[in-house]
Amino acid sequence: MRLARVEEAGALSELALRSKAYWGYDEPFLEACRAELTLLPGEVTSRRTSVVEIDGRIAGFYTLDGQPPEGELGNLWIDPEHLRRGIGRGLWQHAMGVARELGFTTILIDAEPHAEGFYLEMGATTVGTTPSTSIPGRVLPRMRFDLK
């Protein structure tokens, strides 16, 4: 696990899009999500972006947004070729460790619907829904994790 580098913004954005595509969304849907899934170079640092590498290639990343006491897990994406290998759990644990160190007490997540089960397994609770910023009329699970 390491901090992401500014020059990796494009690769991270493409990884997020590949990960979203894994769930079978069609091209028009993915294009509608592209802007939301794009991490700009200036955001890599400001959004506290960390990556995990396997064999020198980025296998997943997360962003931790906000200021204590309440933050947001803005992204947590795994390259589809590395799914179901514990990488998501490792990224989650790292993100929550960083959040604790920074003084966060609550982390909110606007979850990809297919990932809601993962976040529930990690101990988050679904507290409602939030409108998608990419797809009009679509809602996402709004989740909460209280750091102990």
Automatic annotation (TrEMBL):
<dbReference type="InterPro" id="IPR000182">
    <property type="entry name" value="GNAT_dom"/>
</dbReference>
<dbReference type="InterPro" id="IPR050832">
    <property type="entry name" value="Bact_Acetyltransf"/>
</dbReference>
<dbReference type="GO" id="GO:0016747">
    <property type="term" value="F:acyltransferase activity, transferring groups other than amino-acyl groups"/>
</dbReference>
<dbReference type="Pfam" id="PF00583">
    <property type="entry name" value="Acetyltransf_1"/>
</dbReference>
<keyword id="KW-0689">Ribosomal protein</keyword>
<keyword id="KW-0808">Transferase</keyword>
<dbReference type="GO" id="GO:0005840">
    <property type="term" value="C:ribosome"/>
</dbReference>
<feature type="domain" description="N-acetyltransferase">
    <location>
        <begin position="1"/>
        <end position="148"/>
    </location>
</feature>
<keyword id="KW-0687">Ribonucleoprotein</keyword>
<protein>
    <submittedName>
        <fullName>Ribosomal protein S18 acetylase RimI-like enzyme</fullName>
    </submittedName>
</protein>
<keyword id="KW-0012">Acyltransferase</keyword>
<dbReference type="InterPro" id="IPR016181">
    <property type="entry name" value="Acyl_CoA_acyltransferase"/>
</dbReference>
